[in-house]
Every structure is written in structure tokens, then in C-alpha cells.
Amino acid sequence: MRTATTVEASAGDWNATAEYVAEAEKLGLDICWVAEAWGADAVSPLGYLAARTSTMRIGSAILQLGTRSPVLIAQTAMTLDRLSGGRFLLGLGASGPQVIEGLHGTAFAHPLARMRETVEIVRQVFAGEKLSYTGSQYQIPRPGGEGKPMRVSLAPASVPVYLAALSPKMLELTGEIADGWLGTSFVPEGAGAYLGHLDAGLARAGRVRADLDICQGAEVNVVDEARLAEVLASRKKELAFSLGGMGSGRTNFYHDAYSRQGWAQVAVQVRERWQAGDRDGAARLVTDEMVLATTLIGTQDMVRARLRDWREAGVDTVRLYPAGDTLAARLDNLGRGIDLARAAG
Asked: What domain range is 278 assigned to?
């Protein structure tokens, strides 16, 4: 099982984050993803990390549709691929209406069509083609204007494309057109809620599961039995935020994902409490089982067994989010996670 981590570009001291990534590479980590939400952009840190690392792959997790044109996404990916010596992975996601409409002022409608067309345009640019594209969301050159088909001046590049997906239709599209899937809220026992849709898309394109890197992420925190209850309690408010505060009142892909995996009633209650302003009450509704099922928290034996479950469910790459209040603590958890993932196969 390959190993990865994700860093937040706008979280805390960037020098400490860069040091964490450099040390993670020494531990043998395979991939470092850089997240982008409503803080710092992902591209600037990725360029910096390209210079600070030499063996691990680096990737965007994710660049959000609607914040850049498809051609600019392709140019950015090709530039980062050159800067990193061919180590870049392009992760794309639709994000949600709160960020896309509320912050960027662009329409969130038709995310599925926008994703398909974006990937098609990006791959045309990667191939060095003179760009001429007509779709429902994008038309290049713009009709009725003075533009003519052009190609970018960069040399063609081969950059793997990963899609962040949770909804059934976006999962099918991922299986059909992507090189990898960036997933979250994953429960091995309920993997069919995701993998069935991915497989449908793969079959539609005449592909098989081996053609798609199944990349799943979770917090890793190896603790002794005495601290387990305390750690689980601290994690519940974060999960309550995902279920009740992410997205908008009508659109929350995390809420939907947990609902499809057997927690529909709890997810509804958590969202109601959270949106009513009762954050502590929402967190109290989250069960230990929900936290343990979707994270890598527990004793060493528990985490080892859980990683084995992930591998048997079809996960190829595990994204480790190491807990810890200090750099040393985070690296310790990361190192343990890497060792346990390797042992899982």
C-alpha cells in the first residue's frame, strides 16, 4: 500500500509545514497532497515543495472547478510537473456551492458536466493539441469573437488526473475518465457505496480497477488504551462539522456519504443540531463507532488491523493525517502509520 499525506497551505507556520514535508520524504512517504479550500491557494506551496523535495510525488488535493479556467488548470499542472521533474499529480474537485458561489461568485450548477469537460480540455492541452472545444459548459475559442484555436507553448506532458468524488454520478465519472480517486469518509465495510459506482464507470470505459488508484485518507493517531476514549471524544466535533457545517443547508456531500454508509438518522440529527447553533450537542450525537470506522485511530494493533481492512477493501494509497500538537508528535504518528501501511501489503 502506498502512503501519502495532505497539508493545508494556510494552516499555521508554513516553515514548520515545509519541514514536516521534508522529514516525511525521509520517512519514505510516497506522495504529499496540498489542499485548497478558502484560505491559501495550493499552487504556490506546491512550487515551493517541488524545490524542497526530490523523490516524493506532489499533488493538488484539490484545485476547485470554477476558480480557474480549464486551460489555466492545464498550464499550472504542466508548469508544476516541469518544476518537480515529472512528479506532479493533478487533483481536481467540484468543491461546493458555499465556496464556489459564496466566495468566488461563479455558478456551481452542472458540476458533473463541468468536470468532464474540464478533464477533456486539460488532456487536450497536455497532449500539445491546438485547442478547439465545444461543450455545454465551455466553448474554446469563444464563439462570435476574434479568437482562433491555439496551443500552449509548453512541451506536452503526461500528468495523472485524480478526481475528488463522493456522489454516485461523480464517482462513476471518476471511474470512467480519471487516473485516481481522492476519497474520504471511507468505511471498508461499506466500500460498496463508493466502489460499485467507480466500477460502473470503469466498465463503461472498458477499464478495470487496476487502472484507477484508489486513494483514501484518514486521521492516524496511534495511542495506548488508556487515552483512546479521550482521543475519540476530541475527534467528534470535527466530524460533527463535516456532517452539519460543510457545504450549504441543502448540499453537503459528507453528510450524504455517511448517510449512504448506514448513519442516515444520526447524520440528520447532527446536521439539525449544528445548524441550530448547538455545536456541542451535535458532537455528542456522534458515536465512537462513527469515528473508529472512518479513521485510523486506536492502539497499534487496532490501526494495523484497520489498515488491513482498507487494503482488502481495495485501497491502493492511504493518505495519513497524523495527529499531534508538535512537529515531533506528528512525524512520530506519520512514521508509525507508514510502517503499519507497509506491513498491510
From this structure: 224-296
